[in-house]
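User: You have something folded?
Assistant:
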Amino acid sequence: MSLESYARNLYAPQAFVDVSFVCIEATIGAAGAVTLDAANSAPSTTIALTAEGRYAVTFPKQERCHVVGAIVEGNDVSPAATEGVACMVNAVNAAAGTLELNTFEITTFALAHPADGSTLHLTLLVSGS
């Protein structure tokens, strides 16, 4: 199947209509401060630091929301094996258009801010009927 053909097909339950990808990109600054990259993010999205390693995200309200991916792209070209953070998404509420994104150290699993200069990428698949 060519990429063009694949792009026109979505293999999902019939209840999934009005399907959209919501992409959010943000830069992490000192002490976990976050700046939404509006040019590379979907309209009507926000992200805010709420506590150590916790970010509140808003997106357009829909009936369903599936997290496609959430990653932190570090700014260190040769990190040590024990460096880095991972992401976990909690409290997804499609009807309210909200979720919580947590970042944590990969060795201790303690909530932690990504390194200054890192980029956060979050992709959602939202749908209504």
Remarks:
- The beta strands are 17-28, 34-36, 46-51, 54-58, 64-73, 85-93, 98-105, 119-128.
- The two ends are 28 Å apart (CA to CA).
- The chain is about 5% helix and 50% strand.
